[in-house]
Amino acid sequence: MSSFNIPRKCILAFSLAVFFGAAICSAGLLVRHAGVSVQSGPPVDFGIVGAGTSPAVLSFTLYNTGTEALTNIILSVPTGYATGPNPLATTVGIAPNNEETFEIQLLVEVVGVKDGNAVISCDQLEDFYFPLTGEVQAPAEIRVTDQGSNEIADNQTVPLDFGSGDSGPTRSDPDIHRL
Q1: What are residue 10's phi and psi, to 5 degrees?
Q2: pTM of whole model > 0.70?
Q3: How many CB atoms within 10 Å of residue 150?
Q4: Phi, psi of 16 (to 5 degrees)
Q5: How far is 62 from 108, CA to CA, in rounded Å?
Q6: pLDDT digits (tens, 9 = 90+) for 55-85
Q7: What's the mean pLDDT when you consider all of the chain?
Q8: Which residue, of 29, 57, 109, 140, is most buried by count of CB atoms within 10 Å of its CB?
Q9: Burial class for 134, CB neighbours closer than 10 Å (0-12, 13-18, 19+)
Q10: Distinct helix (H) and strand (E) counts, the chain
């Protein structure tokens, strides 16, 4: 039989989390995305984005559910991600029963699946890990051909001949109606 030495603040924080229907990561810390705890759940999914487009940015909320301020908070993200335009405050602590919103973005420069753990560290608690996943895909290749099967190359400098067919209706056309 194993025995565990669990600090009182862990038991209290866990009890409060169970009472309010939320999972707790460790004493005094809770992280949510879209109102759902990211503790031991499936990875937070950034979806699929195209290379060279705007980065996918997701917001998270860090709650201090403990009885003392969380200080020296550091957010580390895996390769392929960056802290977003609204990063987690690292020098300012989070008082008890307060929260801080932060963002993480999926970078879009390199094609591929991006999996890994974000880590939140602070002086008062053990590191808190939560998984991230997302995919960056290469832009779709567009194939352009003339009326036959001749492919028109990217950045072609030779003019294309569109022929001399009907250029569309003229002002004297009886089928044009003015409003």
Answers
A1: -65, -45
A2: no
A3: 8
A4: -65, -40
A5: 25
A6: 999 999 999 998 888 888 889 999 999 998 7
A7: 76
A8: 29
A9: buried
A10: 1, 9
